[in-house]
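User: Could you check the structure of this?
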Amino acid sequence: VVPIASASKWLSGALIMMLVDEGKLSLDDSVSNYLPEFSGEKSSITIRHLFSHTSGLPSETRCRNDKRTTLDRCSREIAALPLAAPSGQEFFYAGVSMHVGGRVAEVVSGKSWNDLFVERVAAPLGMTQTDFFAYGPTQNPRPAGDAKSSADEYGHFLQMLLQGGTFSGKRILSEASVAEMHKDQTRGARIEYTIYETHGDLDPNLLLARYGIGMWREKFDVNNGRLQEVSSQGYFGFSPWIDVERNLAGVLSVQSRFSRIMPDYLELKKEIRRLIPADPRPLPWQ
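Assistant: Sure, the predicted structure tokens are below.
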């Protein structure tokens, strides 16, 4: 069990889609519906913007890293900050937007973020050692980076996605929500920052990567847009991915650095593609 950093984002995106399935919120709801302090120019920010890094909120704020505060107080501090860009116009990969999204989830569910995650995601998937307390219990967990997990347990989550939202015969997510997570949610926004911009020398296709709900559309056919691979790598190198064309998932579980592990991660996937043929059958949500 290791801290998984930004691989947390995929788990968080799924949790939000579970709330969508339950009718508690919609991706196109304004954040101000649930957090009225997001008023004025911030009233146009939607839940979709928060989980696709297109909200226009600043890339970082001090309170997000303060384990002594709460998601509620930190979200209010974020609401007082000026926008870095108009909502929907710029993609900037960071963690502040999802922090606000975590508070929205607490408001609509009446439960803390970690309790909600354990109840809706971890417990049904048998992820008994996975939670958002990688750095100790707090009322201010970062939905974008505070989870801990293992290769085996995260694999349960990926298996659920491969099976169109089911696990061990139980419906966890609707097929529609799984499909929505995999769509390009940047919607023409100007790409200001991605984690791949310094790795184009390893694979030029990385520079074309776009974002869904909580995960990267890492590889797709440039001719027809057909999705090939999705992922959600963490700062310490923990790298889960799904090879859509082969109907398989993998987790490279390490404690290192993202930039250091990238050559090995890409080579590993290349070798898997060489050894395992594509599966012509579409996944359930395609």
